[in-house]
TrEMBL record:
<dbReference type="InterPro" id="IPR014284">
    <property type="entry name" value="RNA_pol_sigma-70_dom"/>
</dbReference>
<keyword id="KW-0804">Transcription</keyword>
<dbReference type="GO" id="GO:0006352">
    <property type="term" value="P:DNA-templated transcription initiation"/>
</dbReference>
<comment type="similarity">
    <text>Belongs to the sigma-70 factor family. ECF subfamily.</text>
</comment>
<dbReference type="GO" id="GO:0016987">
    <property type="term" value="F:sigma factor activity"/>
</dbReference>
<keyword id="KW-0731">Sigma factor</keyword>
<dbReference type="InterPro" id="IPR014325">
    <property type="entry name" value="RNA_pol_sigma-E_actinobac"/>
</dbReference>
<keyword id="KW-0805">Transcription regulation</keyword>
<dbReference type="InterPro" id="IPR039425">
    <property type="entry name" value="RNA_pol_sigma-70-like"/>
</dbReference>
<dbReference type="InterPro" id="IPR036388">
    <property type="entry name" value="WH-like_DNA-bd_sf"/>
</dbReference>
<protein>
    <submittedName>
        <fullName>SigE family RNA polymerase sigma factor</fullName>
    </submittedName>
</protein>
<dbReference type="Pfam" id="PF08281">
    <property type="entry name" value="Sigma70_r4_2"/>
</dbReference>
<dbReference type="InterPro" id="IPR013249">
    <property type="entry name" value="RNA_pol_sigma70_r4_t2"/>
</dbReference>
<keyword id="KW-0238">DNA-binding</keyword>
<feature type="domain" description="RNA polymerase sigma factor 70 region 4 type 2">
    <location>
        <begin position="103"/>
        <end position="154"/>
    </location>
</feature>
<dbReference type="InterPro" id="IPR007627">
    <property type="entry name" value="RNA_pol_sigma70_r2"/>
</dbReference>
<feature type="domain" description="RNA polymerase sigma-70 region 2">
    <location>
        <begin position="13"/>
        <end position="76"/>
    </location>
</feature>
Length: 174
């Protein structure tokens, strides 16, 4: 029995680890080291609860564990003791397209954790409102309002237009 469980878990990790890491990287606003730590902790918790997790939607269960791990990490005292500095000591030089990515990650980092999680689940993981609500453990209305507020803050931070971009051009109707 344990061999079968281990084999199932190993196959899940091989199949879904990259997706979990992508989600964790977006949740942490680009902190690859913290994202890796969160994924490792998520996989440990998932392995310990594998019997319960595999009886339902394993992907949703893993996503919920990851989001909870991220939110719990932000609550830990050692996070609050960190000193905030104006610029990282070893920031990469901006290159083609890197500046927009860097600005986006900085804008994401400025969002509160649950708001950031709502945006990441909805727009990076492309989850429905209902699935995002399940992952966050809140109502669909909360997901909608948190996402709307987060997108407004991101638009302000990035200087994006508030009106939707119109792709069609009206022709002359004379």
């Amino acid at each position: 029995m344990p061999v079968k469980r281990d084999r199932e878990f190993e196959e899940f990790v091989r199949r879904r680890r990259r997706a979990l890491l992508t989600t964790a990287t977006a949740l942490t606003a680009g902190d690859a080291f913290l994202a890796e730590d969160l994924v490792q902790g998520t996989l440990v918790r998932l392995y310990l609860a594998w019997r319960r997790a595999r009886s339902g939607n394993v992907d949703a269960y893993a996503r919920r564990v990851l989001v909870n791990a991220f939110i719990d990490h932000r609550r830990r005292p050692f996070v609050r003791r960190e000193q905030v500095v104006a610029a990282p000591p070893d920031a990469p030089a901006p290159g083609d397209g890197d500046l927009d990515h860097t600005r986006l990650l900085a804008a994401l980092a400025a969002l509160p954790p649950r708001m950031r999680a709502a945006v990441v689940l909805r727009h990076v993981d492309d989850l429905s409102v209902e699935d995002a609500a399940a992952a966050l453990g809140c109502s669909t209305g909360t997901v909608k309002s948190q996402t709307a507020r987060a997108l407004a803050k991101l638009r302000d931070a990035l200087g994006a237009p508030t009106e939707p971009f119109v792709t069609s051009v009206q022709g002359d109707r004379s």
